[in-house]
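Bug report (template v2)

What were you trying to do?
Predict the complex of my protein with zinc ion.

What happened?
Run completed; filing so the output is reviewed.

Input:
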Amino acid sequence: MVVQRIAAGLVESNQMTGELQFFPEKGESHDALLSMPADAIAAKIGELALAIAGKEPPTVLGVGFPGIIRNGVIEESPNLQQIKGFRLQAALEQSFLDNGAEVRVRVYNDADATAAGIAATRGVLHKVNRVWTLGNGVGFGRYPWAEGTWEGGHMVVTLDPKEHFCGCGGRGHLEGFLGYRAMRMRFLDLEPEEVFANAKAGDQRCAEFVTRCHRALAAATASSIHMDGPGPFYLTGPNAKWIDIGVLDRLVHEMVKMSPLQGSRIEMIPQKDDLGIIGAAVNAERAIAQFNRAAS
Ligand SMILES: [Zn+2]
């Protein structure tokens, strides 16, 4: 997983084995990746993967990365701008070959990897699992992995033209309500933590906003159900704690009424590095198995 830092782990039979390794290491500043050229980041990922695997190189490497990922290429990367357009999969496979190891690589959006990790650790790989990650932006992940863009955080949830706080600049987006950066731009006089605390204490302006946040997330969830069917939804990320699952669940039920679309449930999942690592590995292993079947 490459989010603020690189976190690497060895996965066998859908489970983590051994310790995670990090770059930069825990306790060190996160900023190292920001100033690193794309090929140096790729070399670092390859180095960590070989280090955690021990004597034998891994059979498959799955990488979770924030942004829009297509065919192993980072097409959009909000956090690490220098890697936009970089062919990460090809660069990693080549760096393994340079080290005498043949490792198949697959790259996934980090939220898709998290969705796969949750599905694998809960034993629900047979269902459509979706995850909202609430942090600086709003991530949307889905398992099983499917071709597509899936920028669920940018789903339009209001027609109000004054809603222009999304980091991408688009109007009416979910992230414009629930993204941390967007909240700071909306409440120039309050930090997001204060907004939610004030709402609890009865401040009307803050309470109205918190209600709208819940309606926005419910609307995006309902749209996903209408497009992709019912199933489990998970909430994770540093700001998931601000969402009241009971309220969200009630609002989703108000928005989804067709009987074949009933039965979704929403669950809070504590944020852990290893879910995304397990998920990236699970996705990559399945993709390579499928590729090998198609080739034979
Ligand atoms: Zn947006």
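What did the reviewer find?
The chain is about 40% helix and 20% strand. The CA atoms of residues 4 and 31 lie 8 Å apart.
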